[in-house]
Amino acid sequence: MTNKVVFQDTGKRHYKEVWDYQENLLQQGVKTKQAAAEGEKPTNYLLFTEHFPVYTLGKNGKEEHVLITEAEREQKSVEYFHINRGGDITFHGPGQLVGYPIFDLDQFKPDLNWYLRNLEEVMILTMAEYGLCGERSKGETGVWMDPDIKGHERKICAMGIRCSRWITMHGFAFNVNTDLSFFDYIIPCGIQDKKVTSLETELGQSVSMDEVKEKVKRNFEKVFDISLE
Known about the structure:
It is globular, with a radius of gyration of 17 Å. The model has no long low-confidence stretch (mean pLDDT about 95). The longest helix has 21 residues, at about 15-35. It is α/β, with parallel strands linked by helices and about 230 residues long. It is built from five helices and twelve strands. It has one domain (about 5-229): BirA Bifunctional Protein, domain 2, CATH 3.30.930.10. The protein starts with a strand and ends with a strand. β8 and β9 (about 155-165) form a beta hairpin. Helix content is about 30%, strand content about 30%.
């Protein structure tokens, strides 16, 4: 049965604002499950956003993967948060499509590996529409280009999630027209000697963010068998 999902595009927002909003939606879902009202299920959401420049470090991430000083960050007007998702250090900023599915996996499949592989598949299908071959890298969550060619591996979509009572939050960061120089000040995802890339870099031209959003939405509907409202 196709699940209905509420879609919201929050536009360009500071990180903490959307993080708090996600937390509120997740807690609402948890309360609904705890109440266990007859026939009542948590509402599923898919949030899209672009963030002002920010570095986020996952709960088990290593501080030494942050190569920029606090003074340098302030000079560049880049925020920093140590947060409660999986994964290590990453960057969010303008030109990057960030997606936060608040999904009750009990309504889908309570399996985090299944969920993450599906998130990757959404991005892989979207990249294929631009003639690009997105791939998985063994043992590394996210979507890559040339992951098996030494020296050419480059990540185009990072992922990190949190799950409470099978309700998800956080999600993916897809580099569209992102200023990749911000990644020079961190060890992205804690992975040494591998690069990051973007649709713009791979295609040699800027890409319409609205167009990318529509493709990602359609691929979410296809992969997760959902109807976005």
